Amino acid sequence: LLLQWNLVCEDDWKAPLTTSLFFVGVLIGSFVSGAPPGRFGRKSILFSTMAVQTGFSFLQIFSTSWEMFTVLFLIVGMGQISNYVVAFILGTEILGKSVRIIFSTLGVCIFFAIGYMLLPVFAYFIRDWRMLLLALTVPGLFCIPLWWIIPESPRWLISQGRYKEAEVIIRKAAKINGVPAPAVLFDTAEMQDSKPQQQQKAILLDLFRTRNIATITIMSLLLWFFTSVGYFGLSLSTPNWHGNAYINCFLSAVIEVPAYVIAWLLLRSLPRRYSLSSTLFLGGGVVLLIQLVPADFNVLSVGLVMLGKFGITAAFSMLYVYSVELYPTLVRNMAVGATSTASRLGSIVAPYFVYLGAYDRFLPYILMGSLTVLIGILTLFLPESYGNPLPESFEEMLKVK
């Protein structure tokens, strides 16, 4: 691909820009996926965005220029993050509490890692980039039968006053699980007559309404931004490692599985600040050590990068839970959206950290390691949320310094 469109020498800046523009699409998709489900439903948006990702990935095969490929790649990024977010929401709303925790932590993350592992395997056996894109696009068609298997979210249907449709889904689920359903699930007349409590409206500036809250918000934004830089920087730098690029990419994916398991175990039993800070220290510290490894010790260098990826991946997977626990109900979704946006900005910048390796192969690792250690220290100054009930109001949040 690089040679076909001459993305070398004076045009080598186009390669990282292509990846950055994909993440620009991810950023746009993050905003888009937040609004439509309220009107059109989880299921419709899930399958329509899957169609966007699959359809535009297929169109990329016929790209005649770098510009055409990049524009289509941006649209693929929009579809990819949108169906990921909506699938996450739909799963958490459909599943029961006992299964929901596993689904939202190990389930989603480990299947992401499995898909990540398959990428270098496909790339190893299919060296033509057009055929590789085709092979990666075709599995999207296998999701079509899922339309008749995956139900709409009953919670969303109830919020829209569509009680009969919600009742059909709930009764079917009860039958499959062998659980007897009550004769009357909803008192429709009573539910339609009841008026929701008047809720205070929140705006983005509420995340900065006091010095204390503004400090937490700014620190959280920095935490998400630099953790994202570290994660995507190490993920995208695999071709620059010693040894076989395909094996390195595969190992980079494999190391995520134990990272997700460790993150899940830490979240279950230890304070958030120390869990997050220790994994960031581990990730950043070992990445900084790479510059001290002699040139002949290639295996040790790759091992340190893997250990760094392990630490940063574990930290990244804990951020959603920690952010949810820091903010009150009124602005919780807004806070997660703002911090997630900071993460997308970090992923846009990450390819240029990798690009610095063209000037000095240790420079990307020095920067990523230093910044990761820095935010590991910063995390220790955030409030502790482990064992505390979720704050419901700003008053409860203000009690924590």
UniProtKB/TrEMBL annotation:
One of its GO terms (molecular function) is ATP binding. It is found in: Endomembrane system. Belongs to the major facilitator (TC 2.A.1) superfamily. Organic cation transporter (TC 2.A.1.19) family. Pfam families: Sugar_tr. InterPro entries: MFS_dom, MFS_sugar_transport-like, MFS_trans_sf. It comes from Pelecanus crispus. Keywords: ATP-binding, Glycoprotein, Ion transport, Membrane, Nucleotide-binding, Transmembrane, Transmembrane helix, Transport. This is Solute carrier family 22 member 4. It is a multi-pass membrane protein. The chain crosses the membrane at residues 15-33, 45-62, 68-90, 102-126, 132-150, 213-233, 245-267, 274-293, 299-322, 362-382. Its main location: membrane. One of its GO terms (cellular component) is endomembrane system. One of its GO terms (biological process) is monoatomic ion transport. Residues 1-387 form the Major facilitator superfamily (MFS) profile domain.
